[in-house]
Each structure stands twice: as structure tokens, then as C-alpha cells.
Amino acid sequence: MQFTSIAFFLFFIAVFGLYWLVCKKNLKLQNILLLVSSYIFYGFWDWRFMALLAGSSAVTYYLGLKIGESQGRAKKIYINSGLILAIGTLFYFKYFGFFVESFAELFSIQNKLTLHIILPLGISFYTFRMVSYFLDIKNNKLKPEKDALALFNYIAFFPSMTSGPIDKGGLLLPQLKKERVFTAEAGADAARQILYGAFKKLVVANSITPITQNIFQNYEHLSGSTVALGAVLFLFELYADFSGYSDMAVGFARLLGFKITKNFAFPLFAQNIAEYWRKWHISLTSWLTEYVFTPLVIQFRDHGKRGLIAAIILNFVLIGAWHGPRFTFVLFGLLHGLYYIPLIVKDKLNKKKKIAGNFPTIKEVGNMVLTMLMVCFALVLFAAPDLKSALGMYGRIFSFSLFTIPQFIKIKILGLIGIVILIDWINKDQEHGLDIKRFRPLLRRAFYVFLIFIIMYYGVFSNGSYIYEQF
């Protein structure tokens, strides 16, 4: 059930009405409705995996209680059991087939073990919630949750089930146990965020998708300039698709009275690769920073800058591997880790430069363009189905045909990308891209009508898929 589908629209209207009209004065009823809605949402994709979600949640709840009751070695056993359960489940469904197939290919063994392993929807997102729950208990940042309804809702929360953000228990669990209040102002702002997310997904991302697919599938017959154009367009496709879906997730959560993690902070205007990752997929990078990077830095602290470089590279290799069992994803992460080395050597890793004023300087524009080119170069690995294809694409890009006029340039696409850049730039210091409540009412309403018109006229509704649902 995609956020942009009619089925979800009707589903959410029903949930919203029951949630605030029928269950408004009863927190438990609201949470029951929320949990039932989350399982209906999940079961709409494949009802068979509802048992996996429920079973994982039940074991997580049980182990949490046992952790709270235990001390010393027994407590560690329960915590480690929870981590092994969560990570082991993710490994089986997402990576086991890859390793078995690789082993079979290496030793020329006919392989039939992985034919029926289907990747459950959103498993990477809800598994990371479970892992953070156990790690936060281990690190004394969170107490084991005794409210089963709250914990089940935390793991299965449907607005962020398939797209993230990856919320931690310390943020979402307290909100599940206190009264939620709906205000017209918050509802209007949430609707604005959903509208902008729908525009980015339906109009921008879905319009670019056929072009990038055509380029990447036929790169061998295209010029280097066209393949390079495909990498640039893919950046905007991925940004519009992922940030658009994340905007809608945050907006739908707010309509239900929840404030979840902000996942994007205008990364197109980042002036170096470190700033880019502070603004892109924020919930994943902050999750890995807390649970992977920081422990690695502590472990390698005696090795100075070399230890910091090693920690960053390992962290980004894991970011790449999180996306799936492909060598290209691992290399994608490795390349981003290597991008950090000049910043570390020059002691510029944590330096933040806020763009002041309405217009960037020439230096700021240069920094932004360079950063985006670095990202686009790495995205070839992200888009390629295998290493051979990635090398083939790089080979085309670094050929003499790079200096020819590219194909597939469409004024409509450039105009849509320009609208996204302009809206983001105007609101780069705001909470989200359509946070325009500071403008006059007449101007706001005119802009809403304009976006709705663009969505209805240019929106591509036939492509309901969402890039990150495969992760």
C-alpha cells in the first residue's frame, strides 16, 4: 500500500477519523487502533509476514522484560539473545541468499536454497528499531518497556514502516504512552509537508525514473555525456523519491499526533561530503554514528587520524551493506568513506558553514557543485546492478564521448528539478521544504493550488514503487 495510492488515501482517512473522533478520549483505544492499522498496512503487502513482525515484536517484548528482571551475566545473555535474534533475522532474509549463491557459484554447486526467500517489506527499518531498543537498554539509556501495546506499536508504526525514519525508542515510546493532541495549526503544517512530499515523489521522481532506467539499461550504446547525465538525474530522482516519501511519513505521523525523526535537511546545498551525510538519511547516519561509529572511534582512539579514518570507512562500508547484498553497495559505502580522508587530514571534518543571505557566494556554489558531483560519481555504483555494469558505466563516462551533447535532455525535467531546488533554497532554514507559514495567506494558498495543479497535470501515478522499499 503506497502512500501515493488511492487505497492508502482511503485507509488513512478511515484511520484518522476513527483515531480522533471515536478514540479521542481513550489513549489505549487509540493505540489499539494504531497497532491494528499498522498490521493491516503491513498485511496489505503480504499477510504471511505479519506473523514474522508479530513474532519478532513478541520476543523483543519478552526479552526486554527478562532483561529488566535480571542482573549480571544473565542480563547480558538476554541482551545478546535479542541482538542475535534481530540481526540474525535480517541477515537470513536479506543476505543469506547472497552468501549461499556466492558460495555455490564459487564451487560450481547447483543452488536451490534461496529461490523462495522473499525480502519482507521494511525489515531493515523495523529491525534497526529492535536493535537500538536492546542497545539502549544495555547502555542504560532506556528502561525495558512493560507496556506491550506501546512496544508493538513502536516496532510496527506504519507511517515509517516502509520508508523510515528509523526512530529510537527514547523518542517514540514516550509519545505512545501519553495523550496526543491535535491542533489545526499542526495539522495544516503536516498537510503542507505531505503535499510537498507528494509533489517530489509523483511529479519529479516518477518523471525522471523512465529516463534513468533507459540510460542505465542501455549505457553500452550511449555516449559518456548521456551516462553522466543519468548519474546526475539519478541523484535528483533518489532525493525526490526518498525525501518525498520521508516528508509524507513525517506528515502522516504528525496528523496522528506524533513527532518523528527528521530524515532530510536540504542535502543538495551541502558544501562537503560530511555535511551532505549530516543532511541525508539523517536517521540512518545518526543511528550508525551512535551504535557503530562512536564505539569504533573509542576503540581506535590511540591511532589518531588513522584510527578516525578507519572508523569512518568501516562505518560507511556498513551503510553501503545496509542497502543490500551487492558488492556495488559495499563499494558505494567505501567510496564515501574515502571521500572523508581530505577533510580529516585538513581537520575540517566537523566544521559547519551556514550559507548566509539569499544568494550563495561563488565559493559556496563551487563547494556545492563539487560535493554533488562526488555524490553522483558514487551513485553509479548504487544504480548499477553489478560490478561489471558499474565499470562499464564508468568506462563510458571517462571516454571522449563525455564531451558530446547528451541525449534525453528534457526542458520539463529541468524545470521540475529547478522548482525543487528553488523551493528548498527558499526554505533551507525551515523545518521542511514547504514550511511557508511565514508568508501571507493569499500567497500560500496560491502556491498550494499551483502544486496541486502540477501534481494533477504532470504527476505520474502509474509508477507506485518506491526506491527504498526494497531495502
- Indicate the proportion of strand residues: under 5%
Total DSSP E strands = 0
Distance between the termini: 16 Å
- Contiguous low-pLDDT stretches (5 residues minimum) are none
The backbone outline, from C-alpha atoms, is globular
Mean pLDDT, nearest integer? 89
- Profile the largest sheet: none
Judged by helices, strands and strand pairing, the structural class is mainly alpha
| Helix amount | 55-70%
Radius of gyration, Cα only, in angstroms? 23 Å
Number of structural units classed as domains: 2
Order of helices and strands: HHHHHHHHHHHHHHHHHH
Keywords: Acyltransferase, Cell membrane, Membrane, Transferase, Transmembrane, Transmembrane helix
Protein name: D-alanyl-lipoteichoic acid acyltransferase DltB, MBOAT superfamily
Family: Belongs to the membrane-bound acyltransferase family.
Transmembrane segments: 6-22, 51-68, 77-93, 113-135, 307-323, 329-345, 365-384, 404-426, 447-468
Question: What is the secondary structure topology, with strand pairs?
Answer:
Elements: H1 6-22, H2 27-45, H3 50-69, H4 72-106, H5 123-138, H6 148-156, H7 169-176, H8 184-217, H9 224-255, H10 273-279, H11 282-299, H12 304-322, H13 327-339, H14 341-345, H15 362-383, H16 387-397, H17 411-426, H18 441-458
Helix pairs in contact: 1-2, 2-6, 3-4, 3-6, 4-5, 6-7, 8-9, 8-17, 8-18, 9-15, 9-16, 11-12, 12-13, 13-15
